[in-house]
Amino acid sequence: MSSIKGPAAAPAKFDGSALRIAIVHSRWNKTVIDALVSGTIATLKAQGVKESNIVVESVPGSFELPLACSKVISGSHVQAGASATDLLGGLTFGTSTPTTSFTSPRPVSRSSTPAPGGSGPVLANMPSQPFDAVIAIGVLIKGATMHFEYISESVSHALMRVQLDTGVPVIFGVLTALTDEQALERAGIGSGSDKGHNHGEDWGLAAVEMASNSRRWAEGKFQA
Predict the structure, then answer these.
(1) Which residues are catalytic?
(2) Could you give the CA distance from residue 68 to residue 77 in angstroms, rounded to a whole number?
(3) Neighbour tally for 40: CB within 10 Å
(4) CB-hemisphere CA count at 13 Å for 138?
(5) In which pathway does it act (predicted)?
(6) 74 and 176 fall within a common domain
(7) pLDDT at residue 201, rounded to an integer
(8) Which domain holds residue 57?
């Protein structure tokens, strides 16, 4: 008998080409993490998200995910609002006009530094938009103490709070497995004949769907 578990297909096909997505993952249980992150990235690309618009950051463990997601979201707004001059720290290229340092009364001049191509500063792939969604990926495997329960509950509540406080979808990609094999199967790398299913694929689909819907809802557009 086939399982009834799993999400139904989305009601529409979503185009991720205009989206910018962040992945924040822990480094505990690296074998499983690597498979999940790979599955997530592959799905995002299949949904049209450009590789240059996928940013991957890591933290030590799952407990650090909520803070990291919050900081990544706020930092992307800083990036999007920054000008080329902001990101270059106010340096001037190819000009004799000095700039004054905030930490020293002496003028700072970079007039001797040639600009790339000789025509002015060039910034490759300067971000122009904040993140439309963040995918938090972690792997918690129950051990002999209550550590598993405390971390699972704390991280779950904190990630929910991040998305409610910021208005940016945070996809819950934290596996809470009772055994090593459960974790491996949920990353599609089980040791048995049935390798399981890589949940990173589901998280990639959810990120594109929620990011697209959030944009639409923010504009007051709803399905008829």
Answers:
(1) 147
(2) 14
(3) 29
(4) 25
(5) Cofactor biosynthesis; riboflavin biosynthesis; riboflavin from 2-hydroxy-3-oxobutyl phosphate and 5-amino-6-(D-ribitylamino)uracil: step 1/2
(6) yes
(7) 97
(8) 21-83+126-218
Number of folded domains that form the chain? 2
Query: Which residues, listed in sequence order, are joined to residue 130 by a DSSP beta bridge?
Result: none
The predicted-structure confidence for 47-92, as pLDDT tens digits, reads as follows 999 999 999 999 999 999 999 999 999 999 998 887 555 655 655 5
Residue 87's SS3 state is helix
- Residue of 61, 60, 73 lying closest to 23 (CA atoms): 73
Is the residue at 223 inside a domain? no
pLDDT (mean) for 13-37:
97
Q: Which residue has the higher pLDDT, 163 or 193?
A: 163
The CA distance from 203 to 151, in Å, is 21
Say which amino acid occupies 107.
Answer: P
Write the CA distances from 162 to 14, 76, 129, 134, 222, integer angstroms: 24, 15, 19, 10, 24
pLDDT, average across residues 172-190: 97
Across 98-102, 107-111, 216-220, the highest mean pLDDT is recorded for: 216-220
Residue 74 burial (CB count, 10 A) = 13
Shared domain check, 156 and 118? no
Instruction: Give the separation between CA 204 and CA 17, rounded to whole angstroms.
Output: 13
Co-location of 152 and 181 in the same domain: yes
CA–chain centroid gap for 105, Å, is 41
Question: Quick count: other Cβ atoms within 10 Å of Cβ 171?
Answer: 26
Query: Quick one: tokens of 192?
Result: 């048995």
pTM of the predicted structure, to 2 decimals = 0.81
Backbone torsions φ then ψ of 151, nearest 5 degrees: -70, -45
